[in-house]
């Protein structure tokens, strides 16, 4: 789901202010009287990939001039090929030139994430056995970009993990160390959270898994475990706490994700779609 513009507008306005500064000297120099003629531009894909962020790019131009028309020729989540025209923009040439960089940067970044995500989702889907494993993202995002980067992973076919620390309890290694153990950490948080709050615990060994299955948890994460160890851990959880969801995480790559999915975990979480993705190259051309 696209975040509402009441949330996005202040972010987009900040980015426009950062880029425009005291004024667009290039465009202002071309049209010093402020009466730039109307024109049209097209966006062209310069690489194959999955598009994400076009409705947000449209909003960038409309914040500069509400009379600007941004017509997306593809939908978010659609795969495009090199040379394909993905959008047409009509409006004041000053608006087109002033909004170009912010809008393009946004869509190239989000499309790169969506494209990388689609690769990981495809790797799970192409394994030989039936699986209900879902790919999920993480909180490893650029500050200020989380809503949009997580939107891009959704467009690419993943589902979202926590948006923030207030979404759920997730007790990782440092929380466990601070409390003196998994059982004590869970006991403490259960005393201090709403009863509706999901609890997930990170485990790194059989010993921790055996302790965790006794605690009636919502999710147990298997972190940085070799595949064979993970397989045995999944069997322990399925036997002793069958209602508990299982998440695998840590050093997940395109070459390893299929083997992890074949084990039968419910979720595979990785930051790779965001942290290792490259921007999808897109260019804007003014039509003369």
From TrEMBL:
Catalytic activity: nicotinate beta-D-ribonucleotide + CO2 + diphosphate = quinolinate + 5-phospho-alpha-D-ribose 1-diphosphate + 2 H(+)
Molecular function in Gene Ontology: nicotinate-nucleotide diphosphorylase (carboxylating) activity
Pathway linked to the protein: Cofactor biosynthesis; NAD(+) biosynthesis; nicotinate D-ribonucleotide from quinolinate: step 1/1
Pfam families registered for this protein in UniProt: QRPTase_C (PF01729), QRPTase_N (PF02749)
EC number, as in UniProt: 2.4.2.19
Domain of life: Bacteria
SUPFAM superfamilies: Nicotinate/Quinolinate PRTase C-terminal domain-like (SSF51690), Nicotinate/Quinolinate PRTase N-terminal domain-like (SSF54675)
Alphabetical UniProt keywords: Glycosyltransferase, Pyridine nucleotide biosynthesis, Transferase
Domain (Quinolinate phosphoribosyl transferase N-terminal): residue spans on this chain: 39-111
Keyword Glycosyltransferase found: yes
Domain Quinolinate phosphoribosyl transferase C-terminal: 113-285
InterPro entries hit by this protein: Aldolase_TIM, NadC, NadC/ModD, Nicotinate_pribotase-like_C, Quinolinate_PRibosylTase_N_sf, Quinolinate_PRibosylTrfase_C, Quinolinate_PRibosylTrfase_N
Family: Belongs to the NadC/ModD family.
Known role: Involved in the catabolism of quinolinic acid (QA).
The protein's name in its UniProt record: nicotinate-nucleotide diphosphorylase (carboxylating)
Organism per entry: Pseudanabaena mucicola FACHB-723
């Amino acid at each position: 789901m696209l975040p509402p513009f009441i949330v996005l507008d202040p972010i987009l306005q900040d980015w426009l202010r950062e880029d425009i500064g005291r004024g667009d000297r290039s465009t202002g120099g071309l049209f010093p009287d402020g009466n730039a003629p109307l024109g049209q531009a097209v966006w062209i894909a310069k690489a194959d990939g999955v598009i994400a962020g076009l409705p947000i790019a449209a909003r960038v131009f409309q914040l500069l001039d509400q009379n600007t028309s941004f017509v997306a020729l593809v939908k978010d989540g659609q795969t495009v090929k090199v040379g394909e025209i993905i959008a047409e923009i009509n409006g004041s040439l000053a608006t087109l030139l002033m909004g170009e960089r912010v809008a393009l940067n946004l869509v190239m970044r989000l499309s790169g994430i969506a494209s990388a995500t689609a690769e990981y989702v495809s790797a799970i889907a192409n394994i030989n056995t039936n699986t209900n494993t879902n790919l999920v993202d993480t909180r490893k995002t650029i500050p200020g970009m989380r809503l949009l980067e997580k939107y891009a992973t959704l467009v690419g076919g993943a589902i979202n993990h926590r948006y923030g620390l207030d979404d759920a309890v997730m007790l990782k290694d440092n929380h466990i160390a601070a409390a003196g153990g998994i059982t004590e950490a869970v006991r403490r948080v259960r005393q201090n959270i709403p009863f509706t709050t999901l609890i997930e615990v990170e485990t790194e060994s059989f010993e921790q898994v055996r302790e965790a299955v006794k605690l009636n948890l919502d999710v147990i994460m298997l972190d940085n475990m070799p595949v064979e160890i993970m397989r045995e851990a999944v069997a322990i959880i399925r036997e002793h706490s069958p209602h508990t969801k299982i998440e695998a995480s840590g050093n997940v790559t395109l070459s390893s994700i299929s083997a992890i999915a074949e084990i039968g975990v419910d979720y595979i979480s990785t930051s790779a779609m965001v942290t290792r993705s490259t921007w999808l190259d897109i260019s804007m051309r003014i039509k003369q």
